[in-house]
Amino acid sequence: MEDESSLEHEEHDGISDIPLPSRYPPFRPHRMQIQRSNVCSRAYFVVVMVFFHVYILNVIGLLLYVHYNNGPGDHVSGGGDSSAGSASPSGTPLPDHAPVSGELHVEDQSQGFTLPRIEGIRVGHVQQVSIVPDRMHEMKTISLKPLLFEIPGFLSEEECRVVVQLAQLKGLMESEMKAPNQGQEESNQPLLSLSTEEVFSLLDLNQDGLLQKQEIVSHSRSRDGTWLNPDTLRQILTGLEACPTGMLTLEEFNRVYDVSQRPGQQHRVKLRSQFKQRSKHTWLYQGQGSHHVLRTLRNRVTCLTRLPSALVELSEPLQVVRYEHGDFSNAHHDSSPSHSETTCAHTRLAGNKSALTEVPCRYLTMLFYLSSVEDGGETTFPVADNRTYEEQALVQDGIDLTDTQETCGRGNLRIKPTAGTALLWYNHLSDGRGWMGELDEYSLHGDCPVKRGVKWVASSWINVDPDSQQQARYQRLVAQRHQAQPGMEEHYQPLPHSNLHQDL
Ligand SMILES: *[C@@H]1O[C@H](CO)[C@@H](O)[C@H](O)[C@H]1NC(C)=O
Ligand SMILES: *[C@@H]1O[C@H](CO)[C@@H](O)[C@H](O)[C@H]1NC(C)=O
């Protein structure tokens, strides 16, 4: 109260004689006078109207954006539409979308292209998708962590039979007990039988009693040299780089290597069961000249995911797997967390030679059930839509959730194989800027043992490098190589995107 009254006083004072030395008075009366004289003036009115119009335009722009994002999305694939439309593989925005969403994708366009992502909305949400000309399919959201969809009837029974027969013709081989690509799992192999000296000697290729950087790097690039896990390698390398000489003597190596063997890491390794699987598999190429069912399948993947077709075409071939009685695979991730010392296997062509370990980088997985299984053989997502995820919590009270032979019944989500049904899930989160972000830990999945019948599945993985520049470099390199060989050129012409959009 006192403050207010004193203020009033000061104002009165201020009006009477302007140059008062106190702080408030010179400003207060001044401002009030300006307002009073300008509130009804023309200039003021114009300013207000301009702001008002800008505001209205903003609202309209926002509504239009929301409309274009959701309108066709409900029909096809959630929010994927505008981002797919705004960036074709070459990076040029399609004109019809440019005025509305151009501003929002400026950043993405500078990177070349964006990765569309289908909206899940909520578990149980069903959206209509058009992947073949003459009928619509229903795509149901099964979980949000990971973002997982089920599309019944993605393949006809006839198409399932063709893929199985092609796989049989090509011939299947035993899947290794240890998946060669599971970088994380590889660390499980015992290291205890080797002394530090022996490890040093193994790494010291030229046997000069010193470890050079090149020796560690080259070791890490060999596929068989996986008994040292990436973390250990990184620590050795860090220790080496800290050395003024740039080389490690045995004594220095002892120190570095012992540090990297501290319990924290080994602990986790011991807790988790080894990655195991039993099945037979083969790979089927899906490019030009392959069976039309295989090519159709790939086109449907492009259609559904709305990814740039060049990306789909440069991805791994189709993997077909047969699980017989008792066959299974333990829970695993299809893709890999990105570290500075790893490089994606698929972009190694454009890769940095100093990267330590090659890992699979798979933005999403499409899995096709080619047969129905009488009993067992479910695909399990043990932590799907769990409230939290902690790696340690996977093994608790002697129960290992990754061990599908023992704990399939305990997982959060199990999907029964039905011939023709497809699953689609994202192995990575978005980075928030239209590109691939972190590995989604919740995408952990495995195959329960088949109890009766035979399970045939096919997997399509879309390879993306978390480093979009690297991905772009790689695609440019491939394109250049194929331009150098005119016969193959057609193969790398991206599908005409405008046509695709009409189909959808
Ligand atoms: C490749 O490695 C070099 C150093 O060895 C580094 O300067 C460069 O930035 C790296 N490039 C990429 C794309 O990571
Ligand atoms: C699943 O969520 C529950 C509840 O938050 C939690 O106690 C448990 O540890 C989680 N499981 C994993 C594997 O993180």
From TrEMBL:
GO cellular component: endoplasmic reticulum
Signal peptide span: none
Region (Disordered): 1-22, 77-101, 481-504
DNA damage found in the keyword field: no
GO molecular function ontology, one term from the record: iron ion binding
Keywords, alphabetical: Calcium, Dioxygenase, Iron, Membrane, Metal-binding, Oxidoreductase, Transmembrane, Transmembrane helix, Vitamin C
Cofactor(s) this protein requires: L-ascorbate
Residue span(s) of domain Fe2OG dioxygenase: 314-464
Domain of life: Eukaryota
Protein name from the UniProt record: Transmembrane prolyl 4-hydroxylase-like
Composition bias type Basic and acidic residues, residue spans: 1-15
Membrane-spanning parts: 43-68
Gene3D superfamilies: q2cbj1_9rhob like domain (2.60.120.620)
PROSITE patterns noted in UniProt: EF_HAND_1, FE2OG_OXY
